[in-house]
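Please check this today:
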Amino acid sequence: MLSALTNIYKIPELRQKVIFTLIMFSIFRMGTHIPVPGVNPAVIEQLFNSGNLFGLMDLFSGGALSKFSIFAMSITPYINAAIIIQLLTVVIPTLEQWSKEGQEGHKKTTQVTRGLTVVLAFLQAIGMSIGLKDAILNPGIPSILIIAITLTAGTVFLMWVGEQITAQGVGNGISLIIFAGIVAALPKNLQKLYQYLQAGTINGFNIFLFVFIALAMVVLVVMIEQAQRRIPISYAKRVVGLRSYGGHSSHIPLKVTQAGVIPIIFASSVLMFPVTIAQFIDVPWVKTVAGYLAWGTPLQTSLYALLIIFFTYFYTAVTVKISDMAENLKKYGGFIPGIRPGKPTEDYLDHVLTRITLAGAFFLAFIAILPNMIAAMTHIEGVYFGGTALLIVVGVALNTMKQIESMVVMRHYQGFMK
């Protein structure tokens, strides 16, 4: 492994990309410690210590939200905007046309996504400023606007940083920013474990069990992330003039986790909405509903799992166009052995995708409720492991390693993924 890492630094271009990415990470981490003007950070910290409502959001921001820094909203508005645009592509003809125009269409879609990011970021910043008005030193419209503009500017800057990493660094910049925020929480979690051990709240066996479960889940996530059903494809041989075309075999890879972490994000957003509203509205029945939907309750856990399964099917159906796959196969002379082209091929692909999506949906639901199970088995509270964070970290790490590996192998060096 050490010799493989040395191979990376033998390539000047790759070395520059890695250094540039690390510099961007440093800028991101420095920004998480720059506070928003006009806010009392002690009140914000007290709010986060009183419950884990915003714990997941704080994890993605690398602790910036609990500090209420300029990067408090992280890159979340951009992710929301990208998901909205992707879903609207199915219903808006113009966006669908852009998706088929290659690089030029991608540029237009990116511009629309950027504009929507600014709008969503400003609205979210206004909502956060009003919701956390007790922490504002001089509550009023001017202060709220200044805070909202500052938070929006922080998100836009992070969006720019992510795009720069994608263009000049290694890997997908937006994903790597979230990755960096999650990994940055590791030292804090280790410190909590040490404090629990010193206080006698947990013992060595609890630590061993926690580490064992963590390693086992990382291995499982890697296996499922890499898992795919390969549908064999054959192409008929065609003779045009003196040349022969086709006659080869290929496959269509269908991933088990086709929807990625999106179903977990959708499900958590739906369940967090009433709980978030209850934090700022003093109405008895709202508080009662929020109590039933509090994190970790039996009702919340059951609804969480069911919503994840539903959104897994929904998002897969929206993003994976089986009819287009079958049509393209027929157009280019491809067919699945034993299946007739056209409608029979479409039905077969839909049947296979439905079955593997069910396995992926159950896996995502299991990963999402994993933190509750770990806390119950190890008696370790407040150390977040599993769910969306685990999927993102493993997924981003695998994709980045593949990109680095391809660049290393292209220059005839031995890679590190054997």
In short: The CA atoms of residues 182 and 389 lie 7 Å apart.
